[in-house]
TrEMBL record:
Transmembrane segments: none annotated. SUPFAM superfamilies: Adenine nucleotide alpha hydrolases-like (SSF52402), Class I glutamine amidotransferase-like (SSF52317), GMP synthetase C-terminal dimerisation domain (SSF54810). It comes from Acetatifactor muris. This is GMP synthase (glutamine-hydrolyzing). Residues 116-305 form the GMPS ATP-PPase domain. Its EC number is 6.3.5.2.
Length: 430
C-alpha cells in the first residue's frame, strides 16, 4: 500500500465519517475500525502512522462503557483521544480538533505523508485485485450505476478478460435502464456482458413483503442466487465483484454505531455465499468513487450519472410492491428526470427521484371521486451521501412536473415534494 494510514477507532462517536473525511482532505488516508481491534489486527494493517480513539454519545453500550485493549497504548503509535474520558492518551480532546491541531497530529506527531490520491489508490487496488484473484474469473453485477461501473473499470484494468459482467433486470429498474446498460457496455465498451431478465422471479419473491429490511435482504439474496446460476454455466468463477462503498458499510451498523439500514450488498448476503468477494471501492466515499472513475478514464456522463440503489425501485415502491404502484414509480421518475434535464437541474442536483407510498387518498377526476396513490418527489444535494440538503427547486419546474405526472401516470391523484434533510431523514425512504 502506497498510502500512510491513520486508524480511527470507533468508541461511540457519531462523527467518525466527518473525522475520516477531514483527514483524507489533508491528503492522508484514514479508516474507521471497531473499538475492540486486537493488537495483531492493528499490526496487520499496512503503514499505520497513528491512532485516534474517537468517543462520543454511544460510548456506553448496554450500561457498559466500551474500552480499547490495554495493549494498544504500548504499541508505540502516536495516539490521541476525542470525547473518551477513560482514555490513557497523553492528548485528550473534547471534540474533533480544528484543522491546525489535526495537521499537527498528522504531520508532526505521526510523521504521515500527504500521499492519499486516486492514482496511488488505483495502483494499490490493481495489485491487490491481481493478488486476490490470480488466474481465476470474477463475476460482476453491472447495474450501470456509478459504483458498479467504476468497479468494472477497475477490474478490467487489473484482470482484463477474466472479468465477466452480468446485468440482471430484476424488474425494479428505471424506465429503459436495462436497454441503456446493454447498449453502452456491450455495444460501445465491448464488455464481456451477460444479460439476464429475472423480472418475474424477483417480483414473485417480493409479493406481499412490506418490511423494508426484508425486501432488501430478499433482493440481495436473490441476486446472489442468480449469479450462482450464471456462474455454474461458466468455468473458473470463484469471485464476486461488488460496488460496496464506505457509506454502505457504515450505515449497516457497527458494534457501537446504530444501524441506519442494511444494504443489499452488506446485510443482505446469504451465509452460504459460494464466492469470495472483490470489493475495491469499499473504503471510498461517494465523491471519491467519482474521482476514481475520472482517474480511470470513464466518460463524464457515466461517472456523474444519478445514483441508483441496488434494490432499485423496490425501495421506492414503499411497502409491499404492487405492479400498478411500481409502474407509477417508473413513469413518474422518467418524467422527473426528463423535466430536470430540460431545466438544467440534472447537472446541479446530486440525486432526484420519485416514490409511491402504499396508501391512497381521495381526489377528483372527470368530476368524479377517485381514491388513488400519491407521488412524492425527492431532490437532494450532498458530497458524501452521509448528510444531505434539500434542493430548492424552481416552483415553475415543480408545477410542470406535477401537471405531467397527474396527466400521464395512471392511478395517481396527488404530487408532494419532500422537504426533509439527512439527518433526520435518509436519502431513500426505505
Amino acid at each position: 500500500m502506497r498510502q500512510d494510514l491513520i486508524v480511527i477507532l470507533d468508541l461511540g462517536s457519531t462523527q467518525n465519517t466527518v473525522l475520516a473525511r477531514e483527514i483524507r482532505a489533508l491528503g492522508v488516508y484514514s479508516e474507521i475500525h471497531p473499538h475492540d481491534i486486537t493488537p495483531k489486527a492493528l499490526r496487520d494493517l499496512p503503514n499505520v502512522k497513528g491512532i485516534i480513539l474517537n468517543g462520543g454519545e454511544n460510548r456506553v453500550v448496554d450500561g457498559q462503557a466500551v474500552e480499547v485493549c490495554e495493549e494498544l497504548y504500548g504499541m508505540g503509535y502516536p495516539m490521541i483521544s476525542i470525547d473518551y474520558p477513560q482514555s490513557k492518551c497523553a492528548t485528550q480532546l473534547a471534540g474533533i480538533p480544528d484543522q491546525d491541531a489535526l495537521k499537527k497530529f498528522l504531520f508532526q506527531d505521526c510523521k504521515a505523508e500527504a500521499n492519499w490520491n486516486m492514482k496511488n489508490f488505483i495502483e494499490d487496488q490493481t495489485e491487490l485485485i491481481r493478488q486476490q484473484v490470480g488466474d481465476k474469473k470474477v463475476l460482476l453485477a453491472l447495474s450501470g450505476g456509478v459504483d458498479s461501473s467504476v468497479v468494472a473499470a477497475m477490474l478490467i484494468r487489473a484482470i482484463g478478460q477474466q472479468l465477466v459482467c452480468v446485468h440482471v433486470n430484476h424488474g425494479l429498474m428505471r424506465k429503459n435502464e436495462s436497454e441503456s446498460v446493454v447498449k453502452v457496455f456491450r455495444d460501445e465498451l465491448h464488455a464481456n456482458l451477460i444479460y439476464v431478465d429475472a423480472s418475474e422471479r424477483f417480483l414473485d419473491k417480493l409479493a406481499g413483503v412490506a418490511d423494508p429490511e426484508q425486501k432488501r435482504k430478499i433482493i440481495g439474496g436473490e441476486f446472489i442466487r442468480v449469479f450462482e446460476e450464471e456462474a455454474r454455466k461458466l468455468e473458473g468463477i470463484d469471485f464476486l465483484g461488488q460496488g460496496t462503498i464506505y457509506p454502505d458499510i457504515i450505515e449497516s451498523g457497527t458494534k457501537t454505531a446504530k444501524m441506519v439500514k442494511s444494504h443489499h450488498n452488506v446485510g443482505g448476503l446469504p451465509e452460504d455465499l459460494k464466492f469470495q468477494l472483490v470489493e475495491p471501492l469499499k473504503q471510498l466515499f461517494k465523491d471519491e468513487v467519482r474521482a476514481c472513475g475520472v482517474e480511470l478514464g470513464l466518460p463524464h456522463d457515466m461517472v456523474y450519472r444519478q445514483p441508483f440503489p441496488g434494490p432499485g425501485l423496490g425501495v421506492r415502491c414503499l411497502g409491499a410492491i404492487t405492479r400498478d404502484r411500481l409502474e407509477a414509480v417508473r413513469e413518474s421518475d422518467a418524467i422527473l428526470r426528463e423535466e430536470f434535464a430540460k431545466a438544467g437541474l440534472d447537472k446541479k442536483v446530486w440525486q432526484y427521484f420519485t416514490v409511491v407510498p402504499d396508501f391512497k387518498s381521495v381526489g377528483m377526476k372527470n368530476n368524479a371521486r377517485v381514491f388513488e396513490y400519491m407521488v412524492i418527489i425527492r431532490a437532494i444535494n450532498t458530497v458524501d451521501a452521509m448528510t444531505a440538503s434539500v434542493e430548492k427547486a424552481d416552483w415553475n419546474v415543480l408545477e410542470r412536473i406535477t401537471e405531467r405526472i397527474l396527466a400521464e401516470v395512471e392511478n395517481v391523484n396527488r404530487v408532494c415534494y419532500d422537504m426533509s434533510p439527512k439527518p433526520p431523514a435518509t436519502i431513500e425512504f426505505e
